[in-house]
Amino acid sequence: MPEKKKKPTAAVNLIAGGTAGLCEALSCHPLDTIKVRMQLSTRGTGAVGASAGKKLGFFATGAQIVRRESPFGLYKGLGAVITGIVPKMAIRFSSFGFFKSALASSSGTTSSSGVFLAGLLAGTTEAILVVNPTDVVKIRLQAQHHSMADPLDVPKYRSAPHAAYTIVREEGLSALYRGVVLTALRQATNQAVNFSAYTELKAYCLSLQPDLVELPSYQHMGLGLISGALGPLSNAPIDTVKTRMQRESGLSGESGFARFSRIAGSLLRNEGMLAFYKGITPRVMRVAPGQAVTFAVYEQVSTVLDRVPYIGSSRPLTAEE
Q: How many Cα neighbours within 13 Å face the side chain of 44?
């Protein structure tokens, strides 16, 4: 019987989570840009610049961005994502580990409901500390339709730091937290479903392969792909309304609930129920492979780091050794 793998330390969770987030951002960001453009399109216009009545799909939207804005247009907002995703993933895995341990029984095991609750709390934590401010900056950058190939086509926001500075200067610090309740709700449901599905699937796969201490990378990727697809399907309407809220500069004196009601009502009235699921295909295509990369990288990096003295669970070597 192989020795059971030890739980990763907080340091391992922080480093492995941050590394996984960086790899995920670099590989999947173009899909997120296409998703945002599709969510921001309105009926009759498709993506910006499309002819009246023509609705562009996932591949057509991506092709239009490349044609009009150069391939670099697919990476708009990447700076904001990288700035936020490393601490986001570090916070996600370390907070999930903390809450999971806190909810564990006296024997050290955590029930399925405990894993679900730990995912909810981890998602809420990352949303408040990191995700919402970087989402606002990222969406403002992605919503710009200037050509990155034309030096005379000057955008309002030149980079992630410039966008953050401009937003705070013109709209106040609170603008970076526009839609934070919806972001927290989205992240909480995402991570609750994500971690629950991944944990259960991983346990099932290990039960089928009792000779393994840890699953191979391709299985981690497959499980991450499945669990990553479930979150977006559960909260697409929340994400669509949140995206439109964060694009706006906001109306003077309008509360968050009033803004949510106005945007959701306008979507339903003018574009129908299916409008709440705009961008669901690229979102699933973005999140699912992203989670596949995230979990595969996290598991591999955490396994390596666990053997490093003072970081992992391995004890440091003594002078005699």
A: 3
Q: Give dist(CA 307, CA 296) in Å, integer.
A: 18
Q: CA-to-CA distance for 279 and 61, rounded, in angstroms?
A: 11
The residue written with tokens 């934070």 in the block is: 180
The residue range of the domain holding 178 is: 10-305
41 part of a folded domain: yes
- CA 155 from chain centre, in angstroms, equals 25
| Selection from 114, 89, 113 nearest residue 99 by Cα | 114
Task: Give the C-alpha separation, 280 to 275, whole Å.
Answer: 10
Determine, yes or no, domain membership for 3.
no
Orientation of helix 217-247 relative to helix 10-40, angle to 10°: 50
Tally the domains of the chain.
1
77 token code pair = 């907002």
CATH code, domain with 66: 1.50.40.10
Establish if 310 belongs to a structural domain: no
Going 278 to 282 to 284 to 286, the CA torsion angle's sign is negative
Average confidence (pLDDT) over 7-26: 89
Q: How many residues does the chain have?
A: 321
pTM attached to this predicted model: 0.72
Q: Tell me whether residue 4 is in a domain.
A: no
Distance CA 138, CA 187 (A): 16
Yes or no: say if 49 and 68 are a contact pair by the CB < 8 Å rule. yes
> Could you report the per-residue pLDDT of 85-124, keeping only the tens digit for each?
888 899 999 999 999 999 998 888 899 999 999 999 999 9
**Residue 198's closest CA among 170, 172, 176, 220?**
220
The Cα 29–Cα 81 span in angstroms is 8
